[in-house]
Specification:
The protein contains 16 helices and 16 strands. By secondary structure, it is of the alpha+beta class. The protein folds into 2 domains: 245 residues, BirA Bifunctional Protein, domain 2 (2-Layer Sandwich), CATH 3.30.930; 97 residues, Rossmann fold (3-Layer(aba) Sandwich).
Length: 430
């Protein structure tokens, strides 16, 4: 019988890798809670018009990449390809704007796009995102950028590059769009096929083409800065000044436009050189029209999303996450000893220990080898002799130091032992 494998574009996250994910999630929760962001959890699928109206029908995501199907009620349903549209839909549907003030939201979950799978890019992928709704202040732009930088720093990721641009207002972008069509039209035959298709549908996306020939042509294209209104220019200058004040370095990139139609004003990306061609790990910007597009009141907003697969790749390249190890490994052999070992493991776990109990029933030698491979500092050993006397052998695996003590004494001194275990782990003496 053929073995059933995971569907193309999906992957299993095995226990050895999950440690990285848990670290990322824990750091994110702590940081965002301290910044007064509240978690929101939206459905994994939505009505298709949400993304057609929100992201834009002219985008590659809507036109080529969405997982869309009819449900049994003949309703068009789409697996979410990104998180912002769903968060804004919830903001409008549940009248969060009526609470007044600024709403700071964050989310974490699976997204789906029909793309060519490659390292750090799957058809089912995961995003961490933040949204600030209700503020047009440039400080909101600077705040979300600063939080992304702080998040990467907290994970030990350095050497990132922040790319910054503005796409102005809808009116600015329309003037700029017309200028791009005039510029690229004489080169239409020399553009890559995707850019030829985008020329009259979404010409701004030609600017971020990865095709070398198209990139060469785009180098002399008009720049958005020449088509900004005074208000748009002032907003962007304020964002730059605030980031400079926060000592967050950035590079201006007039070709950075992002792939979603809802962006206005600020657009930015954090790029990591160690990820190669797929270097963008975090992207976002301002989207002042999206709430009204989805039926809500006029509400300025700004946010970002981080692709966790790419982030985990970078962490793995750094070796920046230690594999979780148990506080102790319990070895036992013999019916009474195995029953007592189970009870002892249970009681230690209740006291806050992480305990791995060997259930193999194999010879002591094999169990002790598994204990050593677990990288735990401490091994507890019970055999028939210990079971009869209600004792155990306590063995520090690094030094080989060994002692006999009663099981009751172990439980009574558990806090002291846990402190010694902590020191061993911190010193990496295991």
């Amino acid at each position: 019988m053929d073995v059933i494998q995971a569907a193309r574009g999906t992957r299993d996250i095995l226990p050895e890798e999950v440690t990285y994910w848990q670290q990322v999630e824990a750091v994110a929760r702590d940081l965002l809670q301290r910044a007064a962001y509240r978690e929101i959890r939206t459905p994994i699928f939505e009505q298709t018009p949400l993304f057609e109206r929100g992201i834009g029908e002219a985008t590659d995501i809507v036109g080529k990449e969405m997982y869309t199907f009819l449900d049994r009620g003949d309703r068009s349903i789409t697996l979410r390809p990104e998180g912002t549209a769903g968060a804004v839909r919830a903001y409008v549907e549940h009248h969060l704007h009526a609470q007044g003030g600024v709403q700071r939201l964050w989310y974490l979950g699976s997204m789906f796009r029909y793309e060519r799978p490659q390292a750090g890019r799957q058809r089912q992928f995961h995003q961490l995102g933040v949204e600030v709704l209700g503020s047009a202040d440039p400080r909101a732009d600077a705040e979300v950028v600063a939080i992304a930088a702080q998040f990467l720093q907290a994970l030990g990721i350095q050497g990132w590059t922040l790319m910054l641009n503005t796409v102005g207002t809808s009116a600015d972008r329309q003037h700029y769009r017309e200028a791009l069509v005039r510029y690229f039209s004489p080169y239409a035959a020399d553009l890559d096929p995707d850019s030829q298709e985008r020329l009259h549908r979404n010409p701004l996306r030609i600017l971020d083409s990865k095709d070398p020939k198209t990139q060469t042509i785009a180098q002399s294209a008009p720049q958005i800065f020449d088509y900004l209104s005074d208000a748009s220019r002032q907003h962007f200058e304020q964002v730059q000044a605030l980031l400079t004040q926060l000592e967050i370095p950035f590079q201006l990139n007039p070709c950075l436009v992002r792939g979603l139609d809802y962006y206005t004003h600020t657009a930015f990306e954090f790029q990591l050189a160690d990820l190669g061609a797929q270097s963008t790990v975090c992207g976002g910007g301002r989207y002042d029209r999206l709430v009204t597009e989805l039926g809500g009141p006029e509400t300025p907003a700004v946010g970002w999303a981080i692709g966790l697969e790419r982030l985990i790749l970078s962490l793995q390249n750094l070796g920046a996450c230690a594999v979780a190890t148990p506080d102790c490994y319990v070895v036992s052999r013999g019916q009474d000893a195995e029953a007592q070992a189970l009870k002892l493991a249970h009681e230690l776990r209740q006291q806050g220990w992480s305990v791995e109990l060997d259930l193999s029933g194999s010879a002591f030698g094999k169990q002790l080898k598994r204990a050593a491979r677990s990288n735990t500092p401490l091994c507890l050993i019970l055999g028939d002799t210990e079971a009869q006397a209600q004792t155990l052998q306590l063995k520090w695996l690094k030094s080989g130091e060994q002692a006999t003590l009663s099981q009751l004494e172990l439980l009574q001194t558990a806090d002291e032992l846990k402190a010694k275990i902590f020191v061993c782990k911190k010193a990496k003496t295991v």
